[in-house]
Fold each of these.
Amino acid sequence: MLEIIFTVLTAAALFVGIFFAATGVIGILRFPDYFARAQAATCISTMGTLGAVLAGIFYALGNGLDAVWYVKLILIALMIMISASVSGHSLSKGTYKRGHRPHFGGFAKDDYKEDGFDEL
């Protein structure tokens, strides 16, 4: 009975990861400018990967794997979450510095301009 529960949890976590990856891909294809597309791309790498990592943890729990698997999966999730947000921010900051701005309406709050980053 416990194996069935972990199998269902594994499938649900995979479904969540696939859902976020698919909506992120749709966002990349449909969003009008770079900044919106970058947000969709980081959604794929963080939320999609989290679903896959949770599925791996549920699979390891259901099959009685050693604790080292949990540690590895959690470290993978942490590294991807940190690196995706930092790289997305760095790429967006570089794009801003090159003079690109959103197509419709601009930013709600332009922190880069307030920090003097626009004048470099």
Amino acid sequence: MFELLGIPPQALFGQLLIGLINGAFYAMLSLGLAVIFGLLNIINFTHGAQYMMGAFVAWFLLNSALGLNYWWALLIAPIVVGITGIVIERLLLKRIYKLDHLYGLLLTFGLALVIEGLFRNYYGSTGLPYSIPPQLAGGHNLGFMFLPNYRAWVIVFSLAVCLGTWFVIERTSLGATLRAATENPTLVQAFGINVPRLITVTYGFGVGLAALAGVLAAPIYQVSPLMGSQIIIVVFAVVVIGGMGSIMGAIVSGFGLGVIEGLTKVFYPEASNTVIFVIMAIVLLVRPAGLFGRAR
């Protein structure tokens, strides 16, 4: 059928794979944003810079005297970047929780510019190579397309992380406590729960998701100070479409919009850079709270 339209099947499935790869990163980054906004009501514009920091931590670990590989980076980078996020939350963000969302957006946007500027000052704007781990090198010929092992790993791993996060927040007592702490912190604190510490850990976890996505992206996109700013606007559009603060909305919209963007490159390449924003405009007109969001 596609050959009748002048579209080779290899091109179609190739773009579908690229769409799933992009969707995996959209989902993980928008998931972190959704966790932070849904539980802390902070629009975290620093998220793109923290995604970039995760990739740089992986690069530092590999090129340091320790020579820690990709698998160690998957564990260490989210912890390191998450700790920096906790420091930011304790020193800066906690002072603006009771203010309008605009203050949080401006503060985190300024922090993002500072962090990106520091990395550009030391490493320039060109990308640094980060090799695919040997265990995930190569690929499989499926007949209709060649599937690289690393890209398949990114899709499966990111989907597992996203669904695991959704389960913890929506289906466990810990998640119920987190949600209750944002709705009525005074009542939750009366039960002996340290709400400020809970909020801090939640922010660190959301930042850690961004860093984890950065480690996954390093072998595909290279490590660059600009990698966060190049993706964060699209990720915010994904979050708006899914619904601000909606965990499932972030996951479904991330993967779904990545696939739509990839298929658009096949059928109408000129619109591939704008299709997500067109969808965002339509969704906001029809359902201002987003596809999975709830009116506040």
Amino acid sequence: MPPCEVSWFSALCDDDYEFLGVPDAKLRSSYEHCRGIAMAADELGFDNLLLPSGYTLGIDAIAFGAAIAPSVRRMRLLAAIRCGEMWPPQLARQLATLDQMLGGRLTINIISSDIPGETLASKPRYGRTVEVMQILRTLLDGKALDHQGEFYRLKLDPAGAATVSGRCPPFYFGGMSPDAREAAAMAADVFLMWPDKMEAVRELIADMRGRAVKHGRALKFGYRVHIVVRETEAEARAAADRLLSKLDDAEGEAIRKRSLDSASVGVQRQAELRAASQNDGYVEDHLWTGIGRARSGCGAAIVGNPDQVLAKLNAYRALGMEAFILSGYPHAAEADLFARHVLPKLSHGPLRM
């Protein structure tokens, strides 16, 4: 199999715990705490780092990325942007500047959720997202823009700020609804999935490949999942159980509802997986849905010993996955465990477009 990109998670959205649902002041999202995770991930050999974006919780992804860019030696940064929060030409200039600060190592996570203070139906919201991607790609490719859409009507020369390569960084994008899938097929580069059963992953890849072909395009595929790896399977399962040992179900529900994405089709699918799991939370071998009891979004973890975790990741690779965005609790500690036990056994490197 070709090398895969292995990314970690920077916990910018107050989503770092020793016990899920129990906030810990020393693990709250702050510049210093999140910088520590980023520097550790770079040193441990991860290829990329997701900088998530949330309005209600945490700190700003772009500002944080700019602050750590001079310190990151080799790793890419995957900066999340919420379409509609910023005027696209200004955003393009900001992203080009960040790419320069990183020496050309910027990648972009496109998010299509509602923006603060606004609720937009699915079809127009994803329509706006496609327009933002089209505008950004044109400007970041260094081309003049003549865009006459439903949400934006712009005729502009390229900004003075350009990316290192002179090309637009790749767009990573995920979504389960029909509108989201069409948006990805039309304008994204890497289609991201949240955890699901193997057969569902296989079917989604096939569907997205077919949709992309209809637009004369091809997609790469990525998988966002949590990790709990220990030297033995029993220890890994015990660590997973420990994560939930202090969870109050009402607090877990409150955490899930605070997300702007809490009603999305993808989040609903994560809830369906939890409902379909066994009493121990496992929906198939080594895929544990307990994480989703205390967070919105990606709601499952690969749990096992190093060989089991490696085998699960390689099974996804065999289906067509070329990128993984991983995380664990607490994030710095689990990054270290994964880097020691699994990462050296994976053939990996930055995703090539």
Amino acid sequence: MKNSNFKITYHQEGDYLIPDLVIKKDRHHYQIGKYGYLRLGFLKNHKRGLYCELSLKNELDKHLIEVDKEANERVNIIIDQLAKKENVSVYPDGKEPLSWTQKMNNIKNRAEEIVLNEIIYC
């Protein structure tokens, strides 16, 4: 199968012809966050084939952005559900701020642990 629109150009360096290959980068206006970078590390260390495939197809950034957005949304949903279940206000009411902070940190840590197992490390 020939693709007449696909041409490789070369430039000479010394005695060698070097192909002018450029990876096309899509410009995303989204800053990859904590969960996207955790997913990237997981792919590099444990899912090398998927990492290479996404890189070669130029879909790695898109994948990391999707995972980061999904994980953030899921963490927020779980935090709201756990806070409601445990009768903890999502916003501080001014009474016992240290106790409220402790409870919310506990809820957030549990929510993140769930998301890490469901989305990031699968």
